[in-house]
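Fold these two proteins, one after the other.
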Amino acid sequence: MKMFFVLLGYNFACIIIIGIISGLLIAAIPSAVFTPHKISTYHDFKFEDCGRFYDKYFKISVWKDKLPQFSEIVHKGFSKGSLKGIDKAYLGRFYLETIRAEFCHRVLILCAPVFYVLNKSSNVGIVFTILYIIGNIPFIMIQRYNRPRIKKIMTSKAYKNKFVD
C-alpha cells in the first residue's frame, strides 16, 4: 500500500512539473504565432455549432468555471475566467489566448507517454498515460466552447458599429 502512495505522489509531481514547464514555455511564445490561418484546427468545426455541441452533450457551461486556470495558479498570463471588457483589443487577445491554451493542452497530451516511460512500462504507466490524456480533454473543450462565442461577439453587426475604426 505504501508503494501505491509513493507512485501516486511521484506521478502527480510529474504532472505538476510538466504542466508548469510547458505552460511557462508556451506563455513565452508571442501571441502572433497563434493567429489562426485559413486552414486551421483552431477554427470551429461545423458539428460544434458555435460551441452549442459542448453544452448540449457535455453541459460545459455548468462545470467549465470550476476547473483551474494556469494563469490564476502562477498569477501571470491572461485570465480567461470571464470577460473583463468588450473592446476590440481585449476580445482579440482573449480569442488568441484560447488558441494558446488549446495548443498547450494538445502539447500536454503529446507528453502523456512520458508517464508510461517513467513508470517503467508498467500497468501504472498505462493508467497514468490514459488519465493524463483524459484530464486534458476538458480544457480543450472549454477553449473550443468559448472561442466561437467570442468570435460571434466580435463579428456581430452591433459590435462592429460600436467600435468603428
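Now the second one:
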Amino acid sequence: MMARKVMLLGEIGVGKSSLAQRLVFDKFEFDYKPTIGVDVYRYDVPDSPTRPRMSLIVWDTDGNFGDAIFKHIYMKEAAAALIIGDMARAPTLESMVKLGAGFSDAFPGRHIGFIVNKTDLVTDPDAVPLPAGLTRPGTSLIRTSARTGSHVSEAFIDAAECIARRGQ
C-alpha cells in the first residue's frame, strides 16, 4: 500500500487537530488543546475503482508558522496540503488563500485542498461569502464540521484521489 504525506495548514484555532482526530478516531474533544509543533496521524483510505488503497500520513501543524512553514523540514516530501479555515472567522478564510498560494509556489503540481471548517457554527454555510482564491482551478473546496463529522472523511478521500491522479 502506498503512503503519502498530507500537511494540515491554517491559523491557530481553525480546527486542524479536531479534523484529524475526527478522521482517525471518530471523536471530537470540546476542550481546546493547541498543538505545539506537529502531531502526526495515519489514516488508511480504502481503495476505489480509480485508486488503490492509500495510507495518508497526516501532519497536523500548530498554525504558528505562517509563510515560513514552506521552508520548514516538516514540508519535505509532502504530496498535498489541506488548508483549513474557520467558517465563523472571515480573516482565517483570507489566510487560506495566502497559504494556498505559498504552497503552490513552493511545491508546484502538488494537490491543494481547501477545507472550510465549523459549518455547524453558522445557520446557512452556503450563504457565507468565501474569498475568490478558494475556488481556483486545480484545487478542491469542501465544507466540514469536525464537531458533527460532516464531510470530514470526504475531504481526505478527495485528497487521496487527487494525489493518485497526479501520480505523486
